[in-house]
Amino acid sequence: MSTINKEEIEAIGDAHASSATETPLRADAFDKSDDEKIKNIQHHFAEIMKELGLDLTDDSLSGTPYRFAKMYVKELFYGLNPANRPRTSTFENKYGYQKMLVEQNINIDSSCEHHFLPIVGNAHVGYIPKDKVIGLSKINRLVDYYSHRPQVQERLCLQILKDLQKTLGTDDVIVVVNAKHLCVSSRGIKDKNSFTTTIEFGGKFADPIYRNEFLGIIAKGDN
């Protein structure tokens, strides 16, 4: 259990601090089955609703604790469990294709780990093949997997990058994420228009020539 107190939490505010690329998980994170987790979350969320003064005997509210718990375990945060990582089958680069390949406007549907409010936007991924290529839908599925966990946008960008670099056997990968954070737009400053952009890259994309080519491609795609 964290020893951080209320004053320290308020002082940190919305700072997107993250100590590691990996999502912080307890050693016993997957000792319980999904059904056990749903049962426990259902109980605790019912208690939260009661504390808010809501009447759980009302027909409209009575099923909410279960729906909430199932949503958290099976939908919003399915990406926490490594067993749910999509298969990212690769294929031999038989064409000898060595130019840039870009997958644009991949949906981001994530949650801020500081307030558990939505992060919505898109990701753009590019890579330069060496010996292997990957099915395009696999990139989308990988982005979706890492998005569906409590996240910090910087970490999300890095997790997608590092997984693809390992899967493809090349450092020549670049990832850009543009997203709106509801913890900014629906609380606190309540800024409805701002969005956040993060970019991570390796290999040839450290060269501005390659990086600018990629950024030019995604800029055209936004027009």
How would you describe this structure in keywords?
alpha+beta; five-stranded mixed β-sheet; two-stranded antiparallel sheet; 7 helices; 7 strands
Straight-line distance between termini:
48 Å
Provide the spatial order of strands within the biggest beta sheet: 5-2-3-6-7
Largest sheet: 5 strands, mixed
H/E series: HHHEEEEHEHEHEH
Radius of gyration, CA atoms, in whole angstroms: 20 Å
Strand content: 15-25%
Mean pLDDT: 91
If you had to describe this structure to a student in words, what would you say it looks like?
The chain has 223 residues and is an alpha+beta fold. It is built from seven helices and seven strands. A five-stranded mixed sheet has the order 5-2-3-6-7. Strand 2 and strand 3 form a beta hairpin. Helix 2 packs across helix 3. The protein starts with 5 loop residues before the first helix and ends with a helix.
Short characterization:
With 223 residues, the chain is an alpha+beta fold.
List the helices and strands and how they pair.
Elements: H1 6-12, H2 34-51, H3 64-76, E1 90-92, E2 101-112, E3 118-127, E4 132-134, H4 136-147, E5 150-151, H5 153-168, E6 173-181, H6 182-185, E7 196-201, H7 208-221
Parallel strand pairs: 2-5
Antiparallel strand pairs: 1-4, 2-3, 3-6, 6-7
Helix pairs in contact: 2-3, 4-5
